[in-house]
Amino acid sequence: MKSRRLSSLLFVGLALSLTLAGVPAPARGELRVRDVCRVKGQEENTLHGLGLVVGLKGTGDANGTTTLRSLARMMELMGTRVAQGKEGEFLLQEIKDAKNVALVFVTATVPAAGARQGDMLNCTVANAMNAKSLAGGFLLMTPLLGPRPGSDRVYAFASGPVELPDATQPLTATVHNGCRLEEDFRNVYTHDGKVTLVLDKNHASFQTAQDIADVLKNQPDFRDSSAATEVAVARDQVNIEVKIPEKYAADPVLFVSLLLNQRIYTTETEPRVVVNERAGAIVIGANVEIGPVAVTHKNLVIEVSPGVTANEFVPLDPGANKETTRLQALVEALNAVKVPTADIIEIIKGLERNGQLYGKLIVE
């Protein structure tokens, strides 16, 4: 039994040593500014409203007073009055048996590039009460407000037949090209003769922002001989302010297109490990390292340490750095001896809790 265990341990140690020997240093590749940045002002806008889906086959809201009030109001707008009481409340007895109506939230997303009046967009409807299914329904004309509830005007109207993209989710549906814009959406991307680049959240750092600003400063075509200020300034780890040169003042679109196509070198990003427990997926950055630690899993014992180890432990060769080694090597070796993914994830969590994971752990 002991010899079998030592055999397994020696195999792990060999696998780890081989893996470390084959791990190259992180390469610096090229990418464009557009790959890691967007232009401030180019953001999506969400429109929203509250509407009614009709034509359901008995799967609508059951005993929903709010739904019935909305139906009564819609009928009144269409010229059919519903009796009202002394306080002006609708008397809902006339429509209390309506089972083919559902109250829904309606949303539509305007693209980041903007849109023009008359454009048609897809919209999503989701049941707000207790309907059983929206299958086969039709969304009545619904006004959609802007992104600021209570203070925005109507920007669009939505209506049309609803379709279920997923039969297992019968309370969420789509109306294809069901939203018609009534306003232009022109997203302003320049301000005071400047353009602001916004780094993606997964690339945002002070170093990356400064690196991009330095590249733009050294671009001869962007220099303005009469300007006393820098062409590009990194304001923080997210925003980079770029002055539009005088030669492009009358054509900012050309300048922005050239700006976004500038080549930059990738910089070393924050070491990260992303774990998706449900899918059993582990994504490890090439620069994630671990410190001296002993890992025990069932009949396997692995020690990552620069010191002398006891006979019962199999040392993990730390390679060039005598104090650390790469997490990738440990995970690949554990995979080689068929350690379950769930157990590997728990080992990584343990490393993080122990303070020996030199990187950020993101669990999804």
Topology:
Layout: H1 2-21, E1 30-32, H2 33-36, E2 37-39, E3 45-54, H3 65-77, E4 102-110, E5 120-127, E6 138-145, E7 154-161, E8 172-181, E9 194-199, H4 206-217, E10 232-234, E11 239-243, H5 252-260, E12 263-265, E13 272-276, E14 281-284, E15 289-290, E16 293-297, E17 300-304, E18 314-315, E19 325-326, H6 327-336, H7 341-354, E20 357-358, E21 360-363
Parallel strand pairs: 13-21, 17-18
Antiparallel strand pairs: 1-12, 2-9, 3-4, 3-6, 4-5, 5-8, 6-7, 7-8, 9-11, 10-11, 13-14, 15-19, 15-20, 16-17
Provide an overview of this structure.
The protein has about 375 residues and is α+β, with helices and mostly antiparallel strands. It has 3 domains: about 1-25 and about 270-364, no CATH class; about 30-40 and about 195-265, no CATH class; about 45-180, no CATH class. Helix content is about 25%, strand content about 30%. The chain has 7 helices and 21 strands. The strands form 6 sheets. Strands 3-4-5-8-7-6 form a 6-stranded antiparallel beta barrel. Strands 2-9-11-10 form a 4-stranded antiparallel sheet. A 3-stranded mixed sheet has the order 14-13-21, with helices on one face. β6 (about 140-145) and β7 form a beta hairpin. α1 packs across α6 (about 325-335). The longest helix is centred in the first third of the chain and has 20 residues, at about 1-20. It is flat, with a radius of gyration of 30 Å. It starts with a helix and ends with a strand. Residues about 1-30 and about 305-320 have low confidence and may be disordered.
